[in-house]
Write a structure and sequence with these properties.
Layout: E1 4-8, H1 12-23, E2 27-31, E3 43-46, E4 49-52, H2 62-70, E5 81-83, E6 86-91, E7 97-101, H3 104-115, H4 119-142, H5 148-152, H6 157-161, H7 172-179, H8 183-190, H9 209-217, E8 220-222, H10 227-240, E9 243-245, E10 252-255, E11 260-265, E12 268-271, E13 274-277, H11 281-288, H12 292-299, E14 306-314, E15 324-327, H13 332-341, E16 351-354, E17 369-377, H14 385-404, E18 412-418, H15 420-427, H16 444-447, E19 459-461, H17 472-499
Parallel strand pairs: 1-2, 1-13, 2-9, 6-15, 13-19
Antiparallel strand pairs: 3-4, 5-8, 6-7, 10-11, 11-12, 14-17, 14-18, 15-16, 16-17
Helix pairs in contact: 1-10, 1-17, 3-4, 4-9, 7-8, 11-12
The structure holds flavin-adenine dinucleotide.
Length: 500
Protein backbone atom coordinates (compact mmCIF):
# COMPACT_ATOMS: atom_id res chain seq x y z
CA UNK A 1 0.00 0.00 0.00
CA UNK A 2 1.25 3.48 -0.85
CA UNK A 3 2.31 5.61 2.07
CA UNK A 4 0.20 8.67 2.78
CA UNK A 5 1.76 12.09 3.37
CA UNK A 6 0.17 15.33 4.59
CA UNK A 7 1.65 18.66 3.58
CA UNK A 8 0.68 21.53 5.87
CA UNK A 9 0.62 24.76 3.88
CA UNK A 10 0.44 25.36 0.16
CA UNK A 11 3.20 27.93 -0.34
CA UNK A 12 5.75 27.29 -3.10
CA UNK A 13 7.79 25.04 -0.77
CA UNK A 14 4.70 23.01 0.19
CA UNK A 15 3.51 22.68 -3.40
CA UNK A 16 6.96 21.58 -4.55
CA UNK A 17 7.29 19.05 -1.70
CA UNK A 18 3.80 17.69 -2.47
CA UNK A 19 4.65 17.27 -6.16
CA UNK A 20 8.03 15.68 -5.44
CA UNK A 21 6.47 13.18 -3.04
CA UNK A 22 3.70 12.42 -5.51
CA UNK A 23 6.40 11.90 -8.16
CA UNK A 24 7.88 9.27 -5.84
CA UNK A 25 4.51 7.52 -5.70
CA UNK A 26 3.16 8.65 -2.32
CA UNK A 27 -0.47 9.63 -1.79
CA UNK A 28 -0.36 13.31 -0.90
CA UNK A 29 -2.89 15.67 0.69
CA UNK A 30 -2.20 19.38 1.10
CA UNK A 31 -3.96 21.36 3.84
CA UNK A 32 -4.02 25.10 3.16
CA UNK A 33 -5.59 27.60 5.49
CA UNK A 34 -6.27 30.17 2.75
CA UNK A 35 -8.77 29.97 -0.08
CA UNK A 36 -5.83 30.04 -2.50
CA UNK A 37 -2.47 28.31 -2.85
CA UNK A 38 0.86 30.10 -3.21
CA UNK A 39 1.14 31.83 0.18
CA UNK A 40 3.52 34.75 -0.30
CA UNK A 41 3.26 34.17 -4.07
CA UNK A 42 -0.41 35.15 -4.02
CA UNK A 43 -2.00 37.99 -5.95
CA UNK A 44 -4.25 40.97 -5.36
CA UNK A 45 -7.08 42.10 -7.64
CA UNK A 46 -8.38 45.63 -7.28
CA UNK A 47 -10.62 47.70 -9.60
CA UNK A 48 -9.31 46.17 -12.83
CA UNK A 49 -5.69 45.97 -11.64
CA UNK A 50 -3.80 42.77 -10.76
CA UNK A 51 -0.72 42.73 -8.53
CA UNK A 52 1.64 39.98 -7.50
CA UNK A 53 1.41 40.02 -3.73
CA UNK A 54 5.07 39.37 -2.85
CA UNK A 55 7.90 38.09 -5.03
CA UNK A 56 8.63 39.81 -8.29
CA UNK A 57 12.14 38.59 -9.16
CA UNK A 58 12.24 35.06 -10.60
CA UNK A 59 15.60 33.27 -10.72
CA UNK A 60 16.60 29.62 -11.23
CA UNK A 61 13.40 28.63 -13.06
CA UNK A 62 14.97 25.22 -13.68
CA UNK A 63 13.99 24.31 -10.13
CA UNK A 64 10.32 24.71 -11.08
CA UNK A 65 10.76 22.95 -14.42
CA UNK A 66 12.28 19.88 -12.79
CA UNK A 67 9.04 19.27 -10.86
CA UNK A 68 7.15 18.92 -14.16
CA UNK A 69 9.88 16.85 -15.76
CA UNK A 70 9.96 14.38 -12.86
CA UNK A 71 6.19 13.98 -13.29
CA UNK A 72 6.71 13.20 -17.00
CA UNK A 73 5.09 16.49 -18.04
CA UNK A 74 6.45 19.19 -20.35
CA UNK A 75 6.90 22.37 -18.28
CA UNK A 76 6.25 24.56 -21.32
CA UNK A 77 2.78 23.03 -21.68
CA UNK A 78 1.98 24.62 -18.27
CA UNK A 79 3.81 27.93 -18.17
CA UNK A 80 6.39 29.96 -20.05
CA UNK A 81 9.05 32.41 -19.06
CA UNK A 82 11.65 34.53 -20.77
CA UNK A 83 15.00 35.90 -19.65
CA UNK A 84 14.84 39.64 -19.04
CA UNK A 85 17.07 41.66 -21.32
CA UNK A 86 17.17 44.25 -18.54
CA UNK A 87 16.75 43.03 -14.97
CA UNK A 88 16.49 46.41 -13.26
CA UNK A 89 16.92 50.18 -13.54
CA UNK A 90 18.82 51.90 -10.74
CA UNK A 91 18.18 55.59 -10.08
CA UNK A 92 20.55 57.62 -7.89
CA UNK A 93 19.82 60.99 -6.27
CA UNK A 94 22.46 62.75 -8.42
CA UNK A 95 20.51 61.83 -11.57
CA UNK A 96 22.61 58.81 -12.60
CA UNK A 97 20.59 56.00 -14.15
CA UNK A 98 22.14 52.54 -14.47
CA UNK A 99 20.49 49.86 -16.53
CA UNK A 100 21.25 46.30 -15.45
CA UNK A 101 21.32 44.54 -18.79
CA UNK A 102 20.85 40.79 -18.89
CA UNK A 103 23.95 40.22 -21.02
CA UNK A 104 27.03 40.43 -18.82
CA UNK A 105 29.07 42.27 -21.50
CA UNK A 106 26.37 44.94 -21.90
CA UNK A 107 25.99 45.26 -18.15
CA UNK A 108 29.75 45.71 -17.62
CA UNK A 109 29.87 48.30 -20.42
CA UNK A 110 26.95 50.23 -18.88
CA UNK A 111 28.52 50.20 -15.40
CA UNK A 112 31.85 51.38 -16.76
CA UNK A 113 30.22 54.15 -18.80
CA UNK A 114 28.10 55.42 -15.89
CA UNK A 115 30.63 55.12 -13.07
CA UNK A 116 34.10 55.01 -14.63
CA UNK A 117 34.75 51.60 -13.02
CA UNK A 118 36.99 49.48 -15.29
CA UNK A 119 34.99 46.70 -16.95
CA UNK A 120 37.61 44.19 -15.77
CA UNK A 121 36.57 44.88 -12.15
CA UNK A 122 32.99 43.96 -12.97
CA UNK A 123 33.96 40.77 -14.76
CA UNK A 124 36.29 39.78 -11.93
CA UNK A 125 33.53 40.39 -9.38
CA UNK A 126 31.01 38.29 -11.29
CA UNK A 127 33.57 35.50 -11.67
CA UNK A 128 34.23 35.59 -7.94
CA UNK A 129 30.50 35.24 -7.25
CA UNK A 130 30.41 32.28 -9.66
CA UNK A 131 33.28 30.62 -7.72
CA UNK A 132 31.39 31.08 -4.44
CA UNK A 133 28.30 29.50 -6.02
CA UNK A 134 30.30 26.56 -7.35
CA UNK A 135 31.94 25.95 -4.00
CA UNK A 136 28.86 26.34 -1.81
CA UNK A 137 25.61 25.71 -3.70
CA UNK A 138 25.65 21.95 -3.70
CA UNK A 139 26.29 21.60 0.01
CA UNK A 140 24.43 24.59 1.41
CA UNK A 141 21.53 24.82 -1.05
CA UNK A 142 20.73 21.27 -2.06
CA UNK A 143 21.73 19.22 0.99
CA UNK A 144 20.77 19.18 4.59
CA UNK A 145 23.58 20.64 6.64
CA UNK A 146 22.07 19.13 9.77
CA UNK A 147 23.21 15.58 9.08
CA UNK A 148 26.87 15.20 10.06
CA UNK A 149 27.31 12.13 7.83
CA UNK A 150 26.23 14.06 4.71
CA UNK A 151 28.41 17.03 5.69
CA UNK A 152 31.47 14.83 5.99
CA UNK A 153 30.96 13.03 2.70
CA UNK A 154 33.95 13.49 0.39
CA UNK A 155 33.65 16.61 -1.69
CA UNK A 156 31.30 18.31 0.76
CA UNK A 157 34.24 19.42 2.84
CA UNK A 158 35.47 21.59 -0.01
CA UNK A 159 33.55 24.76 0.94
CA UNK A 160 34.30 24.32 4.61
CA UNK A 161 38.00 24.10 3.91
CA UNK A 162 37.78 27.05 1.54
CA UNK A 163 36.37 29.55 4.04
CA UNK A 164 38.63 32.22 2.60
CA UNK A 165 37.67 31.54 -1.01
CA UNK A 166 33.98 31.72 -0.17
CA UNK A 167 34.63 35.06 1.50
CA UNK A 168 33.11 34.12 4.85
CA UNK A 169 35.43 36.28 6.96
CA UNK A 170 34.31 39.73 5.85
CA UNK A 171 30.98 41.38 5.27
CA UNK A 172 29.40 41.91 1.90
CA UNK A 173 29.98 45.66 2.22
CA UNK A 174 33.64 45.21 3.15
CA UNK A 175 34.22 42.91 0.17
CA UNK A 176 32.34 45.15 -2.25
CA UNK A 177 34.08 48.34 -1.10
CA UNK A 178 37.45 46.63 -1.49
CA UNK A 179 36.49 45.50 -4.97
CA UNK A 180 34.98 48.64 -6.50
CA UNK A 181 36.16 52.23 -6.65
CA UNK A 182 32.68 53.53 -7.34
CA UNK A 183 30.44 53.96 -4.30
CA UNK A 184 27.48 53.60 -6.68
CA UNK A 185 28.57 50.09 -7.56
CA UNK A 186 29.21 49.22 -3.94
CA UNK A 187 25.63 50.25 -3.19
CA UNK A 188 24.23 48.40 -6.22
CA UNK A 189 25.91 45.13 -5.24
CA UNK A 190 25.33 45.62 -1.48
CA UNK A 191 21.62 45.65 -2.27
CA UNK A 192 21.67 41.89 -2.84
CA UNK A 193 21.79 41.46 0.96
CA UNK A 194 18.16 42.57 0.97
CA UNK A 195 17.23 39.59 -1.24
CA UNK A 196 17.14 37.57 1.94
CA UNK A 197 16.17 40.44 4.23
CA UNK A 198 19.65 41.04 5.63
CA UNK A 199 22.07 43.88 6.27
CA UNK A 200 24.97 44.33 3.80
CA UNK A 201 27.09 45.76 6.62
CA UNK A 202 26.82 42.47 8.58
CA UNK A 203 25.96 39.63 6.18
CA UNK A 204 29.02 37.56 5.14
CA UNK A 205 30.37 38.31 1.67
CA UNK A 206 29.60 34.68 0.78
CA UNK A 207 26.13 36.00 -0.03
CA UNK A 208 27.59 37.73 -3.09
CA UNK A 209 26.47 34.37 -4.49
CA UNK A 210 23.11 36.13 -5.08
CA UNK A 211 24.82 38.34 -7.66
CA UNK A 212 25.73 35.15 -9.52
CA UNK A 213 22.10 34.01 -9.61
CA UNK A 214 20.95 37.34 -10.99
CA UNK A 215 23.76 38.34 -13.35
CA UNK A 216 25.44 35.11 -14.47
CA UNK A 217 22.39 32.83 -14.43
CA UNK A 218 19.85 35.51 -15.28
CA UNK A 219 16.53 36.97 -14.16
CA UNK A 220 13.43 35.56 -15.81
CA UNK A 221 9.84 36.60 -16.03
CA UNK A 222 6.90 34.22 -16.31
CA UNK A 223 4.22 35.00 -18.88
CA UNK A 224 1.28 36.36 -16.89
CA UNK A 225 3.36 37.41 -13.87
CA UNK A 226 4.84 35.58 -10.89
CA UNK A 227 1.51 34.13 -9.81
CA UNK A 228 1.38 32.22 -13.10
CA UNK A 229 4.01 29.86 -11.62
CA UNK A 230 1.62 29.01 -8.78
CA UNK A 231 -1.23 28.44 -11.23
CA UNK A 232 0.96 26.11 -13.31
CA UNK A 233 1.96 24.10 -10.24
CA UNK A 234 -1.71 23.88 -9.19
CA UNK A 235 -2.57 22.36 -12.56
CA UNK A 236 0.26 19.86 -12.15
CA UNK A 237 -1.02 18.97 -8.68
CA UNK A 238 -4.52 18.39 -10.07
CA UNK A 239 -3.17 16.33 -12.94
CA UNK A 240 -1.07 14.11 -10.71
CA UNK A 241 -3.85 13.49 -8.22
CA UNK A 242 -2.72 15.49 -5.21
CA UNK A 243 -5.65 16.26 -2.93
CA UNK A 244 -5.93 19.85 -1.72
CA UNK A 245 -8.06 20.91 1.27
CA UNK A 246 -8.38 24.67 0.90
CA UNK A 247 -9.56 26.86 3.77
CA UNK A 248 -8.78 24.02 6.15
CA UNK A 249 -6.12 25.16 8.64
CA UNK A 250 -4.30 22.51 10.59
CA UNK A 251 -4.88 23.31 14.26
CA UNK A 252 -2.61 20.77 15.89
CA UNK A 253 -0.52 17.70 15.33
CA UNK A 254 -1.16 14.54 17.30
CA UNK A 255 2.21 13.21 18.45
CA UNK A 256 2.97 9.68 19.60
CA UNK A 257 6.23 8.62 21.25
CA UNK A 258 8.59 9.12 18.33
CA UNK A 259 6.25 9.77 15.41
CA UNK A 260 3.36 12.05 14.54
CA UNK A 261 0.16 10.07 14.18
CA UNK A 262 -2.33 12.53 12.85
CA UNK A 263 -3.46 16.09 12.49
CA UNK A 264 -6.49 18.01 13.59
CA UNK A 265 -8.42 20.58 11.54
CA UNK A 266 -11.81 22.18 12.21
CA UNK A 267 -13.23 19.45 9.96
CA UNK A 268 -11.84 16.56 12.01
CA UNK A 269 -8.88 14.26 12.60
CA UNK A 270 -6.81 12.75 9.78
CA UNK A 271 -4.12 10.10 10.11
CA UNK A 272 -1.08 9.92 7.80
CA UNK A 273 2.21 8.04 7.61
CA UNK A 274 4.28 11.20 7.21
CA UNK A 275 3.98 14.98 7.59
CA UNK A 276 5.69 17.90 5.87
CA UNK A 277 5.20 21.35 7.36
CA UNK A 278 5.42 24.33 5.03
CA UNK A 279 4.38 26.73 7.78
CA UNK A 280 6.70 29.36 9.16
CA UNK A 281 8.58 27.15 11.59
CA UNK A 282 8.21 29.61 14.49
CA UNK A 283 4.44 29.51 14.18
CA UNK A 284 4.47 25.75 13.66
CA UNK A 285 5.99 25.20 17.12
CA UNK A 286 3.80 27.92 18.56
CA UNK A 287 0.52 26.65 17.20
CA UNK A 288 0.70 23.00 16.10
CA UNK A 289 3.28 21.27 18.22
CA UNK A 290 3.94 23.22 21.40
CA UNK A 291 7.64 22.88 22.17
CA UNK A 292 8.80 25.71 24.38
CA UNK A 293 12.49 24.74 24.22
CA UNK A 294 12.56 24.61 20.43
CA UNK A 295 10.64 27.88 20.28
CA UNK A 296 13.10 29.59 22.59
CA UNK A 297 15.98 28.44 20.39
CA UNK A 298 14.19 29.52 17.22
CA UNK A 299 13.38 32.98 18.55
CA UNK A 300 17.00 33.83 19.32
CA UNK A 301 18.42 34.55 15.85
CA UNK A 302 17.61 37.94 14.37
CA UNK A 303 14.72 37.85 11.92
CA UNK A 304 14.90 39.11 8.35
CA UNK A 305 13.34 42.39 7.33
CA UNK A 306 9.71 42.75 6.45
CA UNK A 307 8.28 45.31 4.02
CA UNK A 308 5.85 48.12 3.58
CA UNK A 309 4.12 47.72 0.22
CA UNK A 310 1.85 50.18 -1.55
CA UNK A 311 -0.19 48.61 -4.36
CA UNK A 312 -1.30 51.55 -6.46
CA UNK A 313 -3.60 51.57 -9.44
CA UNK A 314 -2.03 54.47 -11.33
CA UNK A 315 -3.95 56.47 -13.89
CA UNK A 316 -1.28 57.23 -16.48
CA UNK A 317 1.69 55.74 -18.24
CA UNK A 318 5.30 56.51 -17.32
CA UNK A 319 7.71 55.28 -19.99
CA UNK A 320 10.88 56.15 -18.02
CA UNK A 321 10.08 53.29 -15.70
CA UNK A 322 10.51 49.64 -16.59
CA UNK A 323 9.41 46.34 -15.01
CA UNK A 324 11.83 46.61 -12.04
CA UNK A 325 13.09 49.95 -10.74
CA UNK A 326 15.13 51.00 -7.73
CA UNK A 327 15.38 54.53 -6.37
CA UNK A 328 18.36 54.35 -4.06
CA UNK A 329 18.64 55.92 -0.61
CA UNK A 330 21.29 58.62 -0.34
CA UNK A 331 22.70 57.14 2.87
CA UNK A 332 22.49 53.36 2.61
CA UNK A 333 24.12 52.62 5.97
CA UNK A 334 21.58 54.83 7.70
CA UNK A 335 18.75 52.86 6.08
CA UNK A 336 20.01 49.63 7.67
CA UNK A 337 20.60 51.29 11.03
CA UNK A 338 16.95 52.30 11.00
CA UNK A 339 15.87 48.76 10.08
CA UNK A 340 18.03 46.67 12.41
CA UNK A 341 19.04 49.03 15.24
CA UNK A 342 16.00 51.25 15.61
CA UNK A 343 13.32 48.87 14.32
CA UNK A 344 12.00 51.64 12.12
CA UNK A 345 11.93 52.89 8.53
CA UNK A 346 14.47 55.38 7.24
CA UNK A 347 13.06 58.80 6.24
CA UNK A 348 14.94 58.27 2.96
CA UNK A 349 14.35 54.60 2.16
CA UNK A 350 15.37 52.78 -0.99
CA UNK A 351 12.19 52.54 -3.05
CA UNK A 352 11.47 49.57 -5.29
CA UNK A 353 8.83 49.99 -8.01
CA UNK A 354 7.60 46.88 -9.83
CA UNK A 355 5.19 47.44 -12.71
CA UNK A 356 4.06 44.10 -14.11
CA UNK A 357 1.63 45.80 -16.51
CA UNK A 358 4.73 46.82 -18.49
CA UNK A 359 4.89 43.23 -19.73
CA UNK A 360 1.61 41.58 -18.72
CA UNK A 361 -1.26 42.84 -20.78
CA UNK A 362 -4.37 42.96 -18.63
CA UNK A 363 -2.60 43.67 -15.32
CA UNK A 364 -3.88 47.26 -15.62
CA UNK A 365 -6.65 48.92 -17.63
CA UNK A 366 -5.50 50.43 -20.94
CA UNK A 367 -3.37 53.58 -20.47
CA UNK A 368 -2.85 52.85 -16.76
CA UNK A 369 -0.24 51.02 -14.69
CA UNK A 370 -0.13 48.79 -11.61
CA UNK A 371 2.58 50.12 -9.32
CA UNK A 372 3.85 47.84 -6.55
CA UNK A 373 5.96 50.17 -4.47
CA UNK A 374 7.97 48.61 -1.68
CA UNK A 375 10.34 49.83 1.00
CA UNK A 376 12.23 47.68 3.49
CA UNK A 377 10.66 47.62 6.94
CA UNK A 378 11.75 45.98 10.19
CA UNK A 379 10.07 42.87 11.58
CA UNK A 380 6.92 43.65 13.54
CA UNK A 381 7.68 44.03 17.22
CA UNK A 382 4.65 46.16 17.99
CA UNK A 383 5.75 49.49 16.48
CA UNK A 384 3.23 52.27 15.82
CA UNK A 385 2.52 51.13 12.25
CA UNK A 386 -0.18 53.71 11.53
CA UNK A 387 2.40 56.44 12.10
CA UNK A 388 5.22 54.65 10.23
CA UNK A 389 2.92 53.90 7.27
CA UNK A 390 1.80 57.52 6.98
CA UNK A 391 5.34 58.92 7.30
CA UNK A 392 6.76 56.42 4.81
CA UNK A 393 4.00 57.14 2.30
CA UNK A 394 4.75 60.89 2.43
CA UNK A 395 8.50 60.23 2.06
CA UNK A 396 8.04 57.78 -0.81
CA UNK A 397 5.74 60.11 -2.74
CA UNK A 398 8.22 62.98 -2.26
CA UNK A 399 11.16 60.81 -3.34
CA UNK A 400 9.36 59.73 -6.53
CA UNK A 401 8.59 63.38 -7.27
CA UNK A 402 12.20 64.42 -6.58
CA UNK A 403 13.93 61.63 -8.50
CA UNK A 404 11.50 60.89 -11.33
CA UNK A 405 9.55 64.14 -11.59
CA UNK A 406 6.28 62.20 -11.23
CA UNK A 407 3.68 63.52 -8.81
CA UNK A 408 2.31 60.05 -8.33
CA UNK A 409 -0.23 60.85 -5.60
CA UNK A 410 -2.24 62.79 -8.22
CA UNK A 411 -2.51 59.58 -10.28
CA UNK A 412 -3.39 56.98 -7.62
CA UNK A 413 -6.95 55.83 -8.26
CA UNK A 414 -6.97 52.88 -5.89
CA UNK A 415 -4.65 51.71 -3.16
CA UNK A 416 -3.96 48.80 -0.85
CA UNK A 417 -1.20 48.81 1.74
CA UNK A 418 0.51 45.88 3.42
CA UNK A 419 2.71 46.52 6.44
CA UNK A 420 4.63 43.99 8.58
CA UNK A 421 1.62 43.02 10.76
CA UNK A 422 -0.65 42.55 7.75
CA UNK A 423 2.08 40.65 5.84
CA UNK A 424 2.34 38.45 8.93
CA UNK A 425 -1.41 37.86 8.96
CA UNK A 426 -1.83 37.45 5.18
CA UNK A 427 1.06 35.04 4.76
CA UNK A 428 1.23 33.57 8.28
CA UNK A 429 4.82 34.61 8.81
CA UNK A 430 6.38 35.29 12.17
CA UNK A 431 6.57 39.05 12.82
CA UNK A 432 5.92 39.59 9.11
CA UNK A 433 9.53 38.65 8.26
CA UNK A 434 9.77 37.91 4.56
CA UNK A 435 12.59 35.36 4.72
CA UNK A 436 12.57 33.79 8.20
CA UNK A 437 15.89 34.44 9.96
CA UNK A 438 18.23 37.10 8.66
CA UNK A 439 21.65 36.00 7.43
CA UNK A 440 23.47 38.64 9.47
CA UNK A 441 26.40 36.73 10.92
CA UNK A 442 28.99 34.11 9.99
CA UNK A 443 27.05 31.18 11.35
CA UNK A 444 23.52 32.28 10.42
CA UNK A 445 23.21 29.41 7.93
CA UNK A 446 23.62 26.94 10.77
CA UNK A 447 20.92 28.60 12.91
CA UNK A 448 18.09 27.74 10.55
CA UNK A 449 15.83 24.89 11.52
CA UNK A 450 16.64 21.54 9.88
CA UNK A 451 14.44 20.03 7.17
CA UNK A 452 13.49 17.22 9.50
CA UNK A 453 12.55 16.69 13.13
CA UNK A 454 15.06 14.98 15.40
CA UNK A 455 12.29 13.89 17.73
CA UNK A 456 9.60 12.60 15.35
CA UNK A 457 11.01 10.46 12.57
CA UNK A 458 8.07 11.08 10.18
CA UNK A 459 8.04 14.90 10.41
CA UNK A 460 9.79 17.14 7.85
CA UNK A 461 10.05 20.88 7.11
CA UNK A 462 10.10 22.84 3.87
CA UNK A 463 9.85 26.53 2.93
CA UNK A 464 11.58 29.84 3.42
CA UNK A 465 11.83 29.75 7.23
CA UNK A 466 13.95 26.56 7.38
CA UNK A 467 17.20 25.45 5.73
CA UNK A 468 18.46 26.68 3.26
CA UNK A 469 16.45 29.92 3.61
CA UNK A 470 14.00 32.38 2.07
CA UNK A 471 13.35 33.27 -1.55
CA UNK A 472 11.68 31.18 -4.25
CA UNK A 473 14.78 29.18 -5.30
CA UNK A 474 15.70 28.32 -1.72
CA UNK A 475 12.14 27.34 -0.81
CA UNK A 476 12.21 25.03 -3.85
CA UNK A 477 15.62 23.69 -2.80
CA UNK A 478 14.23 22.92 0.67
CA UNK A 479 11.44 20.85 -0.95
CA UNK A 480 14.04 18.93 -2.94
CA UNK A 481 16.04 18.25 0.25
CA UNK A 482 12.89 17.01 2.03
CA UNK A 483 11.89 14.74 -0.81
CA UNK A 484 15.44 13.26 -1.03
CA UNK A 485 15.52 12.76 2.73
CA UNK A 486 12.15 10.97 2.76
CA UNK A 487 13.34 8.67 -0.03
CA UNK A 488 16.53 7.92 1.90
CA UNK A 489 14.72 7.40 5.21
CA UNK A 490 12.30 5.00 3.56
CA UNK A 491 15.12 2.99 2.03
CA UNK A 492 16.90 2.78 5.38
CA UNK A 493 13.72 1.55 7.07
CA UNK A 494 13.11 -1.01 4.35
CA UNK A 495 16.69 -2.30 4.67
CA UNK A 496 16.31 -2.58 8.44
CA UNK A 497 13.01 -4.42 8.06
CA UNK A 498 14.52 -6.84 5.54
CA UNK A 499 17.40 -7.60 7.92
CA UNK A 500 15.01 -8.50 10.78
C1 LIG B 1 6.83 41.14 -0.19
C2 LIG B 1 7.68 39.96 -0.56
C3 LIG B 1 8.59 40.08 -1.60
C4 LIG B 1 9.38 38.99 -1.96
N1 LIG B 1 10.19 39.07 -3.06
C5 LIG B 1 10.82 37.97 -3.52
C6 LIG B 1 11.44 37.95 -4.79
O1 LIG B 1 11.40 38.95 -5.52
N2 LIG B 1 12.06 36.81 -5.21
C7 LIG B 1 12.08 35.69 -4.44
O2 LIG B 1 12.65 34.67 -4.86
N3 LIG B 1 11.46 35.66 -3.24
C8 LIG B 1 10.82 36.75 -2.78
N4 LIG B 1 10.12 36.71 -1.61
C9 LIG B 1 10.23 35.52 -0.75
C10 LIG B 1 9.38 34.37 -1.27
O3 LIG B 1 8.11 34.83 -1.60
C11 LIG B 1 9.26 33.34 -0.17
O4 LIG B 1 10.55 32.98 0.33
C12 LIG B 1 8.58 32.07 -0.62
O5 LIG B 1 7.44 32.34 -1.42
C13 LIG B 1 8.20 31.31 0.64
O6 LIG B 1 7.53 30.15 0.33
P1 LIG B 1 7.16 29.11 1.44
O7 LIG B 1 7.20 27.79 0.80
O8 LIG B 1 8.00 29.32 2.65
O9 LIG B 1 5.65 29.36 1.79
P2 LIG B 1 4.75 30.61 2.16
O10 LIG B 1 4.52 31.41 0.95
O11 LIG B 1 5.22 31.27 3.39
O12 LIG B 1 3.40 29.81 2.43
C14 LIG B 1 3.12 29.09 3.60
C15 LIG B 1 1.69 28.60 3.46
O13 LIG B 1 1.31 27.92 4.65
C16 LIG B 1 -0.05 28.24 4.91
N5 LIG B 1 -0.33 27.95 6.32
C17 LIG B 1 0.17 28.58 7.40
N6 LIG B 1 -0.32 28.04 8.53
C18 LIG B 1 -1.13 27.03 8.16
C19 LIG B 1 -1.91 26.07 8.87
N7 LIG B 1 -1.96 26.05 10.20
N8 LIG B 1 -2.63 25.17 8.17
C20 LIG B 1 -2.60 25.16 6.81
N9 LIG B 1 -1.89 26.05 6.09
C21 LIG B 1 -1.15 26.96 6.75
C22 LIG B 1 -0.14 29.70 4.59
O14 LIG B 1 -1.47 30.12 4.40
C23 LIG B 1 0.69 29.76 3.30
O15 LIG B 1 -0.09 29.52 2.16
C24 LIG B 1 9.30 37.78 -1.23
C25 LIG B 1 8.38 37.66 -0.18
C26 LIG B 1 7.55 38.72 0.13
C27 LIG B 1 6.50 38.55 1.21
Amino acid sequence: MKKKFAVIGGGIGGMAAAISLRNQGYEVTVFEKNRYLGGKMGQIQMQGYRFDLGPSVFTMPGLVDELFEAAGEAPRAYYRYDPLSQSCQYFYEDGTLIRAFGEVEDFARELAAKTGEPQSHIHRFLEKSRTIYELTADLFMFHSIHEPAAMLKRGNLKPLLNFRKIDAFRTMHQANSRHFNSSKLVQLFDRYATYNGSDPYRIPATFNIITHLEHNMGVFYPEGGIHAVVEALQRLMDKTGIRVHRQEPVEKLLPGKDRIQGLQTPQGRYDFDGFVSNMDVNLFYDQLLKEERTLKKLRKPEKSTSALIFYWGVDGSFPDLSLHNILFAKNYRQEFDYLFKQGSISPDPTVYIYISSRVVEGDAPRGKENWYVMVNAPEDTGQDWARLRAEARTNVVAKIQRMLGIQVDRHIECEKILDPPSIGAYTTSYHGSLYGNSSNGKFAAFNRHANFSRRYHNLYFTGGSVHPGGGIPLALASARIVSDKIRKDDKTRQRRKARK
